[in-house]
Specification:
This protein folds into two domains: 3-91, ACT domain (Alpha-Beta Plaits, 2-Layer Sandwich), CATH 3.30.70.260; 103-291, Rossmann fold (3-Layer(aba) Sandwich). 28% of the residues lie in helices and 30% in strands. The protein is built from nine helices and 15 strands. It has helices at residues 15-24, 66-77, 94-101, 142-152, 170-177, 190-202, 232-237, 239-244, 262-269, and strands at 3-10, 29-34, 54-61, 84-89, 105-107, 111-115, 126-130, 160-164, 182-186, 210-213, 223-229, 246-258, 273-275, 279-281, 284-291. Strands 8, 9, 10, 11, 12, 13, 14 and 15 form an eight-stranded mixed sheet that branches. Mean pLDDT is 86; it is low at 35-51 and 94-98.
Length: 293
Amino acid sequence: MPWLQVRLAIGPEQAETYEDALLEIGAVSVTFMDAEDQPIFEPDLNTTPLWSHTHLLALFEADTAADAVFAHLRLLTGSELPEHHAEVIEDQDWERSWMDNFQPMRFGRRLWIVPSWHEAPEPGAVNLLLDPGLAFGTGTHPTTALCLEWLDGQALAGTRVLDFGCGSGILAIAALLLGADEAVGTDIDVQALEASRDNAGRNGIAEQRLALYLPQDLPPMQADVLVANILAGPLVSLAPELASNVRPGGLLALSGILAEQGEEVAAAYADAFELDPIAERDGWVRISGRRRA
């Protein structure tokens, strides 16, 4: 069915007032959107920052009168409204729309990430069938792409791989399909572990080849290869722990790092690893290297 969409151009200090008012007068959903493509990176713990120029979108049932919504907002807030607009929009299958835009992608020489509802473009290639569910990791983001391309370039036969922050399982499963003997995935999100398990089954990965753990349950190990696509802050604070999880001579690849954060993260690993030149794509970087003997 169609919906009445109300849009308000607000500042961060107005967000709570207008969100509460819109919900009080019957909005079925309220969403905040960036009005100027302004990034917000790694907010402080227990904070939810907004952009300096924010669009607040509220949906009402289609028979709601826009003039009545705006009149009630004025009464509830006791002030004139910021820039505002209303329009009727058609409903759509949002999941179907997302699926239509997620197409097969190639990484490196051998590896394809193929949505589970698509045919593989190159049946003879290394094809990873993926349905990310609610977990992070499809290959569309530069950080995941940088890690996938790095994995495609490694000699993984016979190795044991640790995927720290496994999300959808995309990196661990890619490593297994590219020749690794076994992989371990860990994530703080139980849904991520479930998505990883489902995607492993989708790709014919036997349970004993991919072990999945919450971080507190991860057993002591020294992997031949460690990949971690998380955030710069945790990568810096976890550097001693992650380094200890890589055997001497083993390989490391880190991403989820903004270009301006690259030197700080690299410095946290420089004592334990011989680092490669930092790889960059679209403002994000990958740091890789080999554990010192």
